[in-house]
Inverse folding.
């Protein structure tokens, strides 16, 4: 059932078997998976069912380094979390994303792809997509013909598209009916209390924006607040461990990762563009809505020593009007109201910062493509690149000097990319260009800034709002924050759910893997807390 903690009738002090902090994709998935158990589960959510400016502003912080990593603009602090503005793109990580790659420092997970396959299959249903198949021959009824790329250079995979599933809407009624699950709304965790050795959590201190306070005691706690806030809460818990709870390795908040997504990074000039576009456009089959993608093969990555990346095709006519078709006009209208003296608030102004970032991304990078020499006999297609980011200890989350409504230090985000990240996108494009030329499918022209052999980036580089890596998984406590079961190495009863445990990112959006890991964690917790 749902309890609004602002209501005086709500119990001030709560005791349960399992406490999940955060009701996003991970938290809601776990709660649903435990509704048939004998556990008393408590889910704490900072927000309510609708977006609220004062609650959302708790995400405000400082942004250093590259732009497009601002939690206030990227995250939603509400029931359902960031799934409430998720785009719906779904695909699993590749098998080699889990492996140690000699050319990718700090790569390798503490689990393997095979460990997640059963949970990926369940996650497909939760995300409301088709069967678990993603290879080039996945959909046998698909009559499209894909280019005969050399398998050692480029292969073909699929994305599947969720409606998208808004977890806060899709699963609200189900959790409301669950007798063993209490979802506590407007309950902000303001302090994590531990025993004297900081090896076990004893209780959480919670508070509403209006000032009502209380506590939560549980046998086991799960932190499921996202790739930024997970790290922030741990760093704030520094009364016993000065560097933050469970931070003996010094890696809490380090290795902050996003995806490297670059729109209009190149154009393909082709005499028969329809051949390419028909092969790789988005369309609906009886089983699922899908889109094929061109991705660099594992052999190409290993031979040329670059990161996992893939490419999507767009028509230039589509690109010119893309933002109109995705609600861009609505964002512009919000800003017009601000300028006319309406909606004068920080939240709406922050919304406009997203618009301006998008504007710069479109007009800045696309202008470079548009100004390239053009052969009138050919037709052009725009290429969108997506790549994983290399694990980088200098890319990080820490605490700023300003404080929030509760007097807690605000987050400070420093997203950093390296020469290796840039070289990987450039090398992946070169591999694709070679194959397109060999097959006489077109020639590629790449934006000048990407061809420059330096560390510069055409800002803003889009990170996809995919925040990962700040509590990375490792077998050795010296190399990470949680173990293979997502339990903190040094805190006996604290687990972490979500993308902050990712040691590497692949190039696909993280939601499907977040849900899969949450399901796997539930199976582990059932063994730790036997139920009737």
């Amino acid at each position: 059932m749902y309890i609004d903690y602002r209501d005086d009738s709500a119990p001030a002090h709560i005791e349960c078997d399992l406490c999940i902090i955060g009701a996003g994709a991970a938290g809601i998935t776990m709660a649903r998976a435990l509704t048939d158990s004998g556990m008393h589960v408590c889910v704490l959510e900072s927000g309510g069912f609708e977006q609220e400016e004062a609650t959302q502003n708790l995400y405000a912080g400082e942004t250093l380094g590259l732009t497009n990593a601002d939690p206030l603009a990227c995250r939603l602090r509400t029931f359902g979390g960031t799934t409430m503005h998720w785009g719906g793109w779904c695909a699993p990580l590749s098998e080699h994303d889990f492996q140690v790659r000699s050319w990718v420092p700090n790569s390798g997970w503490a689990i393997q792809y095979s460990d997640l396959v059963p949970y990926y299959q369940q996650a497909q249903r939760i995300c409301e997509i088709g069967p678990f198949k993603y290879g080039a021959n996945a959909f046998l009824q698909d009559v499209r013909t894909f280019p005969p790329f050399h398998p050692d250079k480029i292969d073909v995979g699929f994305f599947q598209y969720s409606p998208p599933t808004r977890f806060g809407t899709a699963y609200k009624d189900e959790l409301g009916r669950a007798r063993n699950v209490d979802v506590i709304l407007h309950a902000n965790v303001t302090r994590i209390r531990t025993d004297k050795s900081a090896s076990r959590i004893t209780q959480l201190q919670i508070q509403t924006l209006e000032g009502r306070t209380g506590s939560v005691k549980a046998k086991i706690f799960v932190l499921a607040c996202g790739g930024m806030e997970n790290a922030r809460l741990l760093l704030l818990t520094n009364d016993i461990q000065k560097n933050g709870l469970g931070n003996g390795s010094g890696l809490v908040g380090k290795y902050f990762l996003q995806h490297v997504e670059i729109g209009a990074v190149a154009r393909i000039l082709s005499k028969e563009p329809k051949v390419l576009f028909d092969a790789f456009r988005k369309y609906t089959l009886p089983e699922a809505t899908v889109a094929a993608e061109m991705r660099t093969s594992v052999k190409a990555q290993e031979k040329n020593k670059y990161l996992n990346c893939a490419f999507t095709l767009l028509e230039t006519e589509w690109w010119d009007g893309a933002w109109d078709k995705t609600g861009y006009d609505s964002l512009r209208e919000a800003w017009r109201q601000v300028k006319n003296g309406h909606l004068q608030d920080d939240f709406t102004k922050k919304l406009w910062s997203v618009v301006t970032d998008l504007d710069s991304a479109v007009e800045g990078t696309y202008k470079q493509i548009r100004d390239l020499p053009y052969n009138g006999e050919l037709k052009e297609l725009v290429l969108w690149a997506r790549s994983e980011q290399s694990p980088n200890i200098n890319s990080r989350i820490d605490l700023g000097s300003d404080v929030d409504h509760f007097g807690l230090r605000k987050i400070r985000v420093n997203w950093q990319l390296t020469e290796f990240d840039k070289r990987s996108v450039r090398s992946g494009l070169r591999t694709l260009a070679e194959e397109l030329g060999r097959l006489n499918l077109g020639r590629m022209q790449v934006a000048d800034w990407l061809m420059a052999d330096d560390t510069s980036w055409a800002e803003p580089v889009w990170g996809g709002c995919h925040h990962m890596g700040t509590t990375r998984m490792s077998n050795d406590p010296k190399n990470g924050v949680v173990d293979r079961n997502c339990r903190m190495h040094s805190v006996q009863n604290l687990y972490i759910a979500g993308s902050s445990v990712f040691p590497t990112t692949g190039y696909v959006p993280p939601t499907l893997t977040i849900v899969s890991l949450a399901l796997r964690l539930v199976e582990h917790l059932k063994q730790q807390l036997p139920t009737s």
User: Anything to note?
Assistant: The CA atoms of residues 152 and 199 lie 48 Å apart.
